[in-house]
Amino acid sequence: MSTDTGARSAENDFKRDTNYIETRITADGRDGYPVEANRYRLVVARACPWANRTVIVRRLLGLEDAISMGMCGPTHDERSWSFDLDPGGVDPVLKIPRLQDAFLARFPDYDRGITVPAIVDVGTGQVVTNDFPQMTLDFSTEWTEFHRDGAPDLYPAALRSEIDEVNDVVFRDVNNGVYRCGFAGSQEAYDKAYDRLFARLDELTDRLAKQRYLVGDSITEADVRLFTTLIRFDAVYHNHFKTNRNKLSEMPVLWNYTRDLFQTPGFGDTIDFPQIKEHYYVVHTDLNPSQIVPKGPDLSYLLGPHGREALGGRAFGDGTPPPPPPASEAVPASNGANYSPQ
């Protein structure tokens, strides 16, 4: 139900539950859910890195007018994410207080994690899918009818095999790797996860020292997936998950890569640092029993110069930057680009 849905193996390794609802929304509607404007609601939480991917891709492609977005609060209980940010604690479109209600509307005996992101069919109130890796790819490939003018190609056909390869190792060793460190059940499991994480970050450093983006000369799905972990690294993972060989700000290539993306429209303007920190430090009571949320670090220097322009590349390829987010979806300046604990 949360960003850490999973269990520990016999070797005390953290094993993520990846049994998601695989129903897809496609242009031909082959799963019974055709692409259709204003039919579906994307439910997210700004705190969650997996949900953050969908918020970014939706922004970059300009799907705001086709797919509405519901926002859960940064914390949840053992039952479900909830709409505690909305008046009365009820989503104004779905008319439910908990995301769990949409899952149970379709699967009355649903017994797995209630996770974000999820897409809900507004008319029936039933969840369609929570398969987050496929969700963003479908935004790029199935929802093209509703892309904005100038939408970038985040999953270009000629680069898909390389993007998939990069995404696979980044998921295994970085996106999920930080969780394997944080929720390791033994010193041996933690050491193994820690070593894999930083070995992969070192490899990514070598790759990104020579090119501005992970695959090709513009932003792709691969950059979106890496960014949502890197942007949480110093704020949460370094301390909370004990991924403390270095802070991201002490790894110049990855730090400047993250700053470059953070300053790119559609990326940094989706980040809410107070919500991110509140989620991890309040929900994970096994790791932080006091539920005290650290005041720092000061992340306002994400706005500093990154120098990545020297590597060339065009952020949006043949496309254009997205316009500012709708006012109803904007992150308060004090929570995002100008975040400082002072």
Automatic annotation (TrEMBL):
GO molecular function, one term: oxidoreductase activity
Enzyme class label: oxidoreductase
Annotated Gene3D superfamilies: 1.20.1050.10, Glutaredoxin
Acetylation recorded as keyword: no
Statement: the UniProt record of this protein carries the keyword Metal-binding: no
Domain of life of the source: Bacteria
Disordered: region residues: 310-342
Keywords from the named record: Oxidoreductase
Domain GST C-terminal: from-to ranges: 156-283
Its EC number(s): 1.8.5.-
PANTHER family xref list: GLUTATHIONE S-TRANSFERASE OMEGA-LIKE 1-RELATED, GLUTATHIONYL-HYDROQUINONE REDUCTASE
Protein name: Glutathione S-transferase family protein
Protein source organism: Antrihabitans spumae
